[in-house]
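Late entry, evening session. Most of the bench is empty. Finally got around to the prediction I had been postponing all week. Sequence below, unchanged from the version circulated by S.P.
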Amino acid sequence: MNGNNKNGGGGGDASEYIRRHHRHELKDHQCSSTLVRHIKAPVHLVWSLVRRFDQPQKYKPFVSRCVVQGNLEIGSLREVDVKSGLPATTSTERLELLDDDEHLLSIKIIGGDHRLRLVELEVKLAFWLVNLLNSAFKFSLSLFFFPQNYSSIISLHPEIVDGRPWTVVIESFVVDVPEGNTKDETCYFVEALIKCNLKSLCDVSERLAVQDHTEPIDQL
């Protein structure tokens, strides 16, 4: 798979997992990247959050509301309301893959109100977002965001660190590079959003692990 591979936190080699589960057919006008996060919680607990296609707001800080159309199954659509401060208000997303045995989830954005525009501006993320990133996060870019042909894969893998169960979380994406933007700019912006999601997933999962609480998994 072409694109970037960024490993954050913990140890361990995720390259074999990426090779097996994170293959994207990358075209010339697209960019792709892979991010890795190590979480101090068992894989079944983290998966109980990630698999909830119908409730991404359980850990995604940008989502305020989600409604699934019809039964929850492969091909199901969800309408996601996005919190203010981002170049979007709603997003329509399709469930491409949900595998409880392999701990794999894949979604594709197929529509929504993403306020397509090319405008140079300085984005200063809100204080709560800065806290999520644990760093001052201020950048200038051509804000493009309608994520044309955006799809992502997230996979979870158990690991043992110092005798305790951890989880390796890998998320990869592919997306069109909009006219007027570079591949680096596009990846930088998408990666920033995913990093926030993974940081929040880590916080929620590790808090639940301390409480020894796992939500039951209802099979599709």
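Two things to note before I forget:
The longest strand covers residues 164-176.
The radius of gyration is 17 Å.
Will write this up properly tomorrow.
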